[in-house]
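Hi R.,

Here are the chain sequences for the assembly we discussed:
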Amino acid sequence: MTSIGSELWPYVVLVVAGFLPNEVWRIVGLAVGRGLDEESEVVIVARAVAIAILAGVVAKLILFPSGALAMVPVMVRVAAATGGFLVYWFARRSVFAGVAAAELIILAGAGFFVR
Amino acid sequence: MRLARVARLHAREQCDTKRAMSASTTGHVPHSPSRAFFAGFRSAWNSVFALVLAGTYVGIGAIAHDLGFSSWWLALSSLLVWAAPAQLILITALGTGAALFEAAIAVTLSAIRLMPMVVALLPIIRPADGRLKPLLLPTHFTSVSMWVESLRLLPALPREERIPFCNGLSIGYMSVAVIFGFVGFYLVAGLPPIFAAALLFLTPISFLITTARNCRMLFEYVAMIAGLIIGPLLAWYQVNLDLMWTGVIGGAIGYAVYKVRRFAT
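And here is the predicted structure of the full complex:
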């Protein structure tokens, strides 16, 4: 492959695997127009599928991370996620408090284990 | 019941249209599209979503750097894809060696949720003259932060100002995303490993907690927990199309719970 081709390839991938498969649902929404309410079956299924995939990605990022995060032991990562979630849950559902707590646990763990 | 809702929506729309038309013919309401656009842009940077987006994209920028993407690729993905979950799925899938087809399927499954959002936005922004072209940009811009704020702010505006306001709002959020994507990308490269690790943890933890926060019904919590368990399990056993199956199985379990609850009550 030519150097121009290999330089452009990531952008082709972006359009084919990122832009088009994502954009198509916005266009479908525009075409469907009206007549779809919050409680309709399509909406429920779409929400459940999207939540499950995103949760799967999140769990993979925590359990099989890359780069510097991989140097932090898996138990610390799981403890940080669990701790962060519990703080969020009991601190009146504060996203900020939960994220901050998790980050503190990771920092402490990284400080202890990462050289 | 659904018919009544639709009828009500139509009635409200006709009211809006009449008001907009009378306003423009009598000239009582001075309206300038560019002023509405900048009002939207300012409102984006002043909203709490700007902070949330900044944090989200700092995290995504860090992960994109670690998985070997360029900063311009990331910026372009923010403009073209414009959905943080889809971008995260795309970057982690491609970055960990998934095939193009596999990444595309996971992205498209995660994006179906955008369709009902566009449908709900349309009656609010549809121009009085019924033209389609002005709707194209807001359709592309539809994503969670822009959608929540549009549904909250737009109904109070005159109809002819809604699309420019909505576009300004969206471009405001997009600029936050692009700028903080660059920040995260270069920050993770320069930080000592301890802080780089904390930065890389920002995305999973904030997505985990905001996903939980967006759950209102039991089936949503069930889908989340199913995804948390099935996703890494399939990845561990190196199942092909693991993200697709996570979505299909986790989504089916969530939907089953919804049906059972529906049937029981």
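DSSP finds 13 helices and no strands in chain B. Confidence is low (pLDDT under 50) at residues 6-10, 13-28 of chain B.

Let me know if anything looks off.

Best,
T.
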